[in-house]
């Protein structure tokens, strides 16, 4: 029904083959793939769990043009880096389902961040966004995502320093104020550099990634235990916080470089760091950074990142021990950490916690998506409708509170200029098609514009009152479309007659 460019299928990258290989001539590495031991585990329920977790992330934290920081909402927007992590979790959902769900949010979340700007005072934050942008490019194929990633990465490269700190200068600063150099701002850019090299064919990205990795591996990874230090201060003091995302990032960096070069030492490094991670950062076989009381703020985000890069190692170098931790952690997220409304606690062993943060919730959704994907392909979609909540949403809220809707939610709180939703629809032949909208109009008669490929196709489509928000109706219009993919937009524009509130559930396009 929908055209879809998927990382593991046909997204060719100049100089780098498909997106599943980080460099020609290197070992095959699938970005984001997971291979825990799936023997005897039915994939279908876990895909449903991952769907629910990703939907819940958006339903609870989208508001209505950016992401909130907490649920219940305090009215505070989340930070730049946590936005990037939540976007990555939603990208996981879109990739896992082959674009059948959550695909519109690739662009929707891009637009939300674009309205706020891409620059950050923290280089690790810019790198998290770079990684998300590269994945958005892999999945949707839009060159603007890659262009933005390259611009951010140029800023990160400029933060390499040779004047500080201690006896062995080097590394990328954590922030513009030059307060420290962190694993997140060094190992993370190794991963992004390898991926940009594969997608652009520019070998300078790979050279920089190797340079950063060599410095950080030599100075911030214990040669005996493989513990990864958190950061280095300007006076040369090394701070050794124990967090899963530090080890996870170095594993991800080593795996990326192994994929790009085939050099065995990188794989050996990844194995060593993973061994430390499993011995020192698990509890009862589950990834652990602290309980719900003590692992707060940014800490709540770390395990999803650790899980991602452990998964990438398992995909290329399977280990029973690693498989067991990945499976136990993925299952615990759903069975032990899940609370009301499919919101998740920081501690994956539980108990559930309310309120919760976007950090904990996106970490959990990320993990469930990766775990489900590892178990096997998602069941094919059975609904041929284009769900409104999976469209490209412009400043419209999400709800799932009124009975009778299809999909995982519907668009609500929609009664102002600048609010609309885009649907990317596909038809085999040019012609005039019947557009059907599934909607509720509980506040009385309403109307909306219908655009097709940027032109006003239906100036003011009447949407008669349904008498209640729990009552749903349909309305039709005829729209001329060319063969192939078109964009249909349902728009509120008061100057052209749009009126009243509408909850939009889905559309269909038929001859």
The share of residues in helices is 25-40%
Broad shape: globular
List how many beta strands DSSP finds: 20
Please report the number of helical segments.
12
Mean pLDDT metric: 92
The separation of the N and C termini measures: 14 Å
Q: Could you walk me through the main structural features you see in this protein, from its secondary elements to its overall organization?
A:
The chain is 39% helix and 17% strand. It is α+β, with helices and mostly antiparallel strands and 511 residues long. A hairpin with a 5-residue loop joins strand 5 and strand 6. The strands form seven sheets. A five-stranded antiparallel β-sheet has the order 11-14-19-16-17. It contains twelve helices and 20 strands. The chain has two domains: 364 residues, Glycosyltransferase (Alpha/alpha barrel), CATH 1.50.10; 125 residues, Jelly Rolls (Sandwich), CATH 2.60.120. Helix 4 runs antiparallel to helix 5 and helix 6 packs antiparallel against helix 7.
Topology:
Elements: E1 12-13, E2 17-18, H1 43-61, E3 70-71, H2 80-96, H3 104-116, H4 123-140, H5 143-157, E4 181-182, H6 187-200, H7 203-220, E5 231-232, E6 238-239, H8 244-261, H9 264-280, E7 282-283, E8 286-287, H10 302-316, H11 320-335, E9 356-357, H12 358-375, E10 386-387, E11 392-394, E12 397-399, E13 410-412, E14 420-427, E15 431-440, E16 446-452, E17 455-463, E18 473-481, E19 484-491, E20 503-510
Helix pairs in contact: 1-2, 1-12, 2-3, 2-4, 2-12, 4-5, 4-6, 5-6, 6-7, 6-8, 7-8, 8-9, 8-10, 10-11, 10-12, 11-12
């Amino acid at each position: 029904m929908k055209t879809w460019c998927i990382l593991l299928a046909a997204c060719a990258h100049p100089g780098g083959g498909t997106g599943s290989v980080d460099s020609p001539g290197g070992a095959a590495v699938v970005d984001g793939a997971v291979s825990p031991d799936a023997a005897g585990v039915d994939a279908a329920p876990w895909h449903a769990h991952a769907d629910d977790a990703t939907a819940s992330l958006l339903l609870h934290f989208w508001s209505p043009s950016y992401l909130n920081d907490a649920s219940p909402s305090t009215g505070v927007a989340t930070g730049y880096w946590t936005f990037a992590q939540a976007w990555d979790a939603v990208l996981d959902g879109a990739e896992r389902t082959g674009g059948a769900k959550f695909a519109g949010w690739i662009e929707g979340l891009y637009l939300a961040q674009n309205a706020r700007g891409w620059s950050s005072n923290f280089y690790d934050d810019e790198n998290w966004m770079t990684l998300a942008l590269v994945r958005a490019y892999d999945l949707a194929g839009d060159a603007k995502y890659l262009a933005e990633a390259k611009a951010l990465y140029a800023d990160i490269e400029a933060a390499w320093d040779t004047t500080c700190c201690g006896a062995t200068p080097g590394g990328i600063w954590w922030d513009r104020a030059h307060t420290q150099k962190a694993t997140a701002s060094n190992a993370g850019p190794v991963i992004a550099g390898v991926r940009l090299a594969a997608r652009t064919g520019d070998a300078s990205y790979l050279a920089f990634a190797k340079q950063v990795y060599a410095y950080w591996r030599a100075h911030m990874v214990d040669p005996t235990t493989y513990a990864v230090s958190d950061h280095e201060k300007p006076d040369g003091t090394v701070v050794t916080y124990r967090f899963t995302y530090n080890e996870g990032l170095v594993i991800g960096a080593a795996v990326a470089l192994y994929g790009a070069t085939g050099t065995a030492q990188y794989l050996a490094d990844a194995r060593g760091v993973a061994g430390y991670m499993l011995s020192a950062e698990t509890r009862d076989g589950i990834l652990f950074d602290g309980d719900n009381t003590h692992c707060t703020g940014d800490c709540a985000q770390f395990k999803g990142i650790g899980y991602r890069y452990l998964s990438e190692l398992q995909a290329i170098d399977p280990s029973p021990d690693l498989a067991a931790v990945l499976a136990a952690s993925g299952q615990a997220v759903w069975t032990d950490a899940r609370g009301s409304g499919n919101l998740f606690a920081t501690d994956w062993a539980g108990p559930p916690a309310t309120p919760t943060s976007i950090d904990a919730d996106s970490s959990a959704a990320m993990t469930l998506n990766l775990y489900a994907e590892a178990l096997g392909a998602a069941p094919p979609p059975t609904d041929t409708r284009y769900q409104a909540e999976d469209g490209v949403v412009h400043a419209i809220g999400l709800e799932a509170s009124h009975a009778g809707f299809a999909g995982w939610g519907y668009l609500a709180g929609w009664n102002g200029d600048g609010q609309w939703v885009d649907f990317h629809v596909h038809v085999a032949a040019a012609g005039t098609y019947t557009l059907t909208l599934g909607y509720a109009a509980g506040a009385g008669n309403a109307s909306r514009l219908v655009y097709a490929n940027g032109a006003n196709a239906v100036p003011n489509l009447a949407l008669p009152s349904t008498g209640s928000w729990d009552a749903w109706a349909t309305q039709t219009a005829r729209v001329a479309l060319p063969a192939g993919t078109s964009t249909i937009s349902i728009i509120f524009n008061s100057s052209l007659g749009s009126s009243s509130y509408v909850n939009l559930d889905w559309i269909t396009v038929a001859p």
